[in-house]
Design a protein that fits this description.
The complex is a heterodimer of chains A (about 325) and B (about 450). Chain A has about 325 residues and is α/β, with parallel strands linked by helices. Helix content of chain A is about 35%, strand content about 15%. The longest helix of chain A is centred in the N-terminal third of the chain and has 20 residues. Chain B starts with 13 loop residues before the first helix and ends with a helix. The chains are: A alpha/beta (about 325), B alpha+beta (about 450).
Chain lengths: ~325, ~450
């Protein structure tokens, strides 16, 4: 790949598209499936940028928000807090959980980890999934790279040893959640997200069986993307079985980015200049099709297709002099 | 009576109740069932809720000092209480039924299935003498099990003229004789008495705490419930309500002097059902929750279930285990995991695989504690807190040997030919620190 095709991952365009798709899905649920998401409480890992908090307040009108931060940077977190109504909770998820009041509150939870799927992540998801009120939405993002969490160990080991270690580790952690044990071919860069997606869905579904009430998990999101390291997001709705019909009837499953299955949807877009982007956009008519676009510059067909898939959510970045 | 060929008979058999039902339960549990009945009467007649000890600001007061006195030897077993007695109308159509028609409403009692007392009778002996005195009446029922077994009738007649015996205050006196051989053998053992006292001390810890006196062959039972560590550590407290059952979870650590491993204690309407559990029953080693290990010895978790609707509580008929599948218990279990986690993480951090100096200092938290019993704990919801120990910078000891000629070179360069070795070592260390480190 040429350098101009590479992504500037400091601004993470795929991540931004993912957020926008999520917002669109939630709007849809609000409008067509009777989920009053604007009254929900959002809980996530804001980090100092609070990007998701700002967007979800602006576009989903949510103003009950809890931000969990595990690093010991309370002053930075407080300084950067964009809105007073954001409740900042310092600590690991397991430390913060006992403080959260789940009763009579529907949540949107997005646990956006910057490391791979491990027992700790599954534990957090398990605890949340057992505690959330019906109607709540939960998303998990994990890194999907075949590597060990300990960087030193990861680099020290030979490829074979690393793979062997990973397989043992995964089999240990995912043991009860998978039908078949993890094999070497699951570790391939393109296969790993699918393996993780299976584990995550299975975890959500297993947690439902540990609840005292009768609820189900319906997966809606299964994205993979790589602004830098490859990431995977899996999520959906926790609700009572009676809601299934309503959900089916709403047409949400017809949206092209909704994925209830185990094969993750790829979010990938080419970096384009404003002129390039505009030259494509102005040709977009009702019912976009690839062959109707008269390309005025060099762009591989797959990249054009990717662009057309997500053109409405394609982020453009400007330098702003503040 | 002509046989009807078109039906399969399903009538209960007395043999089942006398010989079979008693197999599933131990002798100790049977005796505890009789104590449960006494306490049930006490709760009904005095309308108190022992849970107030833990949830309310004041201990509930009892107007008289109720007693339950057990005496036994190899020839008899007796239990006498001053807990209010059972009214004759309840005896006529309720207390002696096998199974309950419907549960009593309006108080958080201990009598649920309507099986415990009869099961205890049959488990222990073959002659039973039951006397009850209430404020209104007194009556006696005598049962000869071997005679009753032969009768078709399912009733126990009231004795025409009750012997007053030693019942001064309203209560129940039960005497069982013609003990079964192995029961007689066990009741004569001093070890059995001691074990029974131990069981009573935990099972009824809360009731004893508010003034109920239970004696076994002259030995008075003391309330036995581990206290919580306080001072730098404060326990978490969480309330929830599920399907009409109030659940209270308290988790913390035991003080340093408590050596024995703890775990979870489960109570239903004040009665301890599970003691210091370290098994899957309370979530250990299940769904990635850690298996109980030595490092968790100080972990103490209490779970209280309280409801006036007794059938909703997660206890089994033997009251020695919880019904794990019950939605109420599942909900509690989910919350127990969440509340326990920070404590287990803290304990685990004290014993890392590669010990760091800092962690060992923090472990000292466990040894600098005060003590609070459960009735002394603050009543508002709270989170687990452990105040870290403020520590002096950790020092390392450096000790090395170098050729004397090299040492002389440094002394010479410094212009201090008699500089002591220690000072020279410190000087060179500080020199490097200043010039090379941030």
């Amino acid at each position: 790949m040429e350098s101009y095709e590479k992504l500037n991952y400091t601004i993470r365009p795929s991540k931004q598209i993912e957020r926008k798709l999520f917002i669109e899905a939630l709007h849809y649920l609000g409008q067509h499936a009777n989920y009053p998401v604007r009254n929900y409480t959002y809980m996530g890992f804001g980090s100092v940028f609070y990007a998701d908090f700002i967007m979800f307040h602006k576009y989903l009108y949510i103003n009950d928000m809890i931000c969990i931060e595990g690093s010991d940077i309370p002053k930075r977190m407080d300084l950067n807090k964009p809105y007073e109504f954001i409740q900042l909770e310092m600590g690991r998820v397991s430390d913060v959980l006992p403080r959260i009041n789940f009763k009579n509150t529907q949540f949107i939870v997005w646990l956006d980890y910057d490391y791979g799927l491990c027992a700790e992540v599954l534990d957090d998801l398990d605890n949340f999934s057992r505690a959330l009120c019906p109607g709540s939405i939960i998303n998990a993002t994990v890194e999907a790279e075949p590597k060990l969490r300990d960087r030193e160990e990861n680099e020290k080991l030979s490829r074979q040893d690393r793979e062997k270690k990973l397989i043992d580790l995964y089999n240990d952690h995912f043991d009860t959640l998978l039908e078949e044990p993890v094999k070497k071919r699951d570790l391939a860069w393109k296969s790993l997200p699918r393996l993780f997606a299976k584990v995550l869905k299975s975890q959500f579904e297993t947690s439902m069986t540990k609840r005292p009430d009768d609820v189900l998990f319906w997966q809606l999101f299964n994205f993979r993307y790589a602004d830098g390291a490859q990431m995977l997001t899996v999520g959906g709705i926790i609700d009572v079985p009676e809601k299934e019909k309503q959900l089916q009837g709403s047409g949400i499953y017809d949206l092209n980015f909704i994925e209830a299955g185990e094969e993750p949807k790829l979010i990938s877009v080419p970096p384009l200049t404003f002129r390039e982007k505009e030259s494509i956009d102005r040709q977009i008519d009702k019912g976009i099709s690839l062959d109707k676009i008269d390309l005025k510059f060099e762009l591989r067909e797959t990249l054009l297709k990717n662009y057309l898939d997500f053109y409405r959510h394609y982020p453009t970045f400007h330098e702003a002099i503040i | 009576m002509p046989e009807n060929d078109n039906v399969a008979h399903a009538e209960p058999q007395k043999e089942f109740f006398i010989d079979m039902l008693t197999r599933d339960i131990g002798l100790t549990e049977c005796i505890l069932d009789l104590i449960d009945n006494s306490i049930h009467s006490l709760i009904r007649t005095h309308h108190f809720d022992v849970m107030n000890i833990i949830t309310g600001d004041q201990k509930p007061a009892l107007d008289h000092k109720p007693t339950i006195t057990l005496n036994f030897s190899d020839s008899f077993f007796s239990i006498v209480d001053s807990c209010g007695g059972v009214e004759k109308k309840d005896a006529r159509n309720g207390v002696f039924l096998f199974g309950k028609k419907e549960n009593e409403k309006g108080f958080a009692g201990l009598g649920l299935y309507g099986v415990g007392m009869k099961r205890a009778f049959f488990k222990l002996g073959r002659k039973i003498d039951f006397i009850s005195k209430t404020n209104g009446d007194i009556y006696q029922i005598k049962i000869d099990v071997d005679e009753w077994r032969k009768e078709k009738d399912w009733t126990f007649p009231f004795a025409p003229e009750p012997e007053k015996k030693d019942l001064k205050t309203p209560g129940v006196a039960i005497k069982i004789s013609n003990l079964l051989p192995d029961v007689a053998k066990r009741l004569s053992l001093i070890s059995f008495r001691n074990e029974l006292v131990k069981e009573i001390q935990s099972s009824y810890a809360l009731f004893i705490m508010i003034g109920l006196e239970i004696t076994v062959n002259g030995k008075k039972a003391e309330s036995r419930l581990p206290p919580f560590a306080s001072k730098r550590i404060s326990p978490a407290r969480k309330k929830l309500e599920v399907e009409g059952v109030d659940i209270l979870i308290i988790v913390g650590l035991t003080p340093k002097e408590m050596r024995e491993p703890q775990g979870w204690y489960v109570f239903c309407n004040g009665r301890m059902i599970v003691e210091a559990d370290q098994s899957k029953l309370t979530g250990w080693g299940e769904d990635r929750f850690p298996v109980f290990a030595n490092k968790f010895n100080h972990f103490l978790g209490l779970v209280y279930f309280s409801s006036m609707e007794l059938e909703k509580l997660p206890w089994t008929t033997t009251k020695s285990e919880v019904v794990k599948d019950s939605p109420v218990y599942q909900a509690a279990l989910n919350e127990m995991r969440i509340q326990a986690r920070p404590i287990l993480d803290l304990l685990s951090s004290f014993y890392p695989s590669a010990p760091e100096e800092e962690k060992i200092v923090q472990r000292g938290l466990l040894f600098d504690t005060g003590t609070l019993t459960v009735d002394q704990l603050p009543k508002e919801e709270s989170l687990f807190r452990a105040e870290p120990i403020v520590q002096k910078p950790v020092e390392a000891n450096i000790n090395y040997k170098k050729p004397l000629t090299d040492v002389q070179k440094i002394r010479k360069r410094l212009g201090k030919p008699r500089m002591p070795y220690k000072e020279l070592g410190e000087y060179t260390f500080e020199y490097f620190l200043e010039k090379e480190c941030d």
